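Example S7 (C-alpha cells).
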C-alpha cells in the first residue's frame, strides 16, 4: 500500500459515479443479470463513496438489515483494489460507530475469491454458501455469506 495515499469515505453517491463503476469492464465478475446502475433509494440504505487522493475509487452500499446488523456490498474500481483492505477497515469502523450494531454481513459472489480472502484476512468468518443465489450471463452462481461480530473486531 502506498503510505502517502489519502483515502476517504463520504456518505452519499453521485448517479454518474455509480453508473461509471457499473460500466467499468473490471466489474464484469460483479455484475449480475439484475444489476442496476441507479442508486437504491431506501431509508435503510446508505452509500459510502470511496476516493483515493480525491479521485473516485468506488462505492460501498450499507444496508441496515436490522437494529443490530449492517449488510455491506462493495464495488471498487481496479485502481482502488490496492487499498481494498484499508477501505474495508474504514467501512467496518463506520458500521461499528453505530452503537447498536453487533455484526456486519458481507455477501461475496462465487468467483470473487480474492475479495472473499481479503474479508477473511481482516476477520470475517465464512458462515455459509447460498447456492444459485444470483444469475450472471444466464447461469446461476452461488454467494458466500461472511460475518464479522463487533466482539471479533480488534482494530
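Recovered sequence:
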Amino acid at each position: 500500500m502506498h503510505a502517502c495515499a489519502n483515502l476517504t469515505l463520504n456518505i452519499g453517491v453521485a448517479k454518474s459515479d455509480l453508473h461509471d463503476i457499473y460500466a467499468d469492464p473490471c466489474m464484469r465478475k460483479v455484475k449480475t443479470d439484475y444489476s442496476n446502475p441507479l442508486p437504491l433509494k431506501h431509508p435503510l440504505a446508505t452509500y459510502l463513496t470511496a476516493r483515493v487522493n480525491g479521485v473516485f475509487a468506488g462505492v460501498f452500499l450499507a444496508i441496515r438489515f436490522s437494529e443490530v446488523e449492517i449488510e455491506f456490498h462493495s464495488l471498487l474500481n481496479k485502481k482502488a483494489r490496492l487499498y481494498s483492505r484499508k477501505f474495508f477497515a474504514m467501512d467496518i469502523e463506520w458500521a461499528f460507530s453505530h452503537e447498536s450494531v453487533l455484526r456486519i454481513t458481507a455477501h461475496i459472489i462465487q468467483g470473487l475469491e480474492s475479495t472473499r480472502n481479503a474479508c477473511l484476512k481482516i476477520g470475517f468468518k465464512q458462515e455459509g454458501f447460498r447456492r444459485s443465489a444470483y444469475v450472471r450471463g444466464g447461469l446461476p452462481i452461488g454467494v458466500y455469506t461472511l460475518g464479522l461480530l463487533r466482539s471479533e473486531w480488534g482494530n
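Notes on this example. The CA atoms of residues 113 and 144 lie 10 Å apart.
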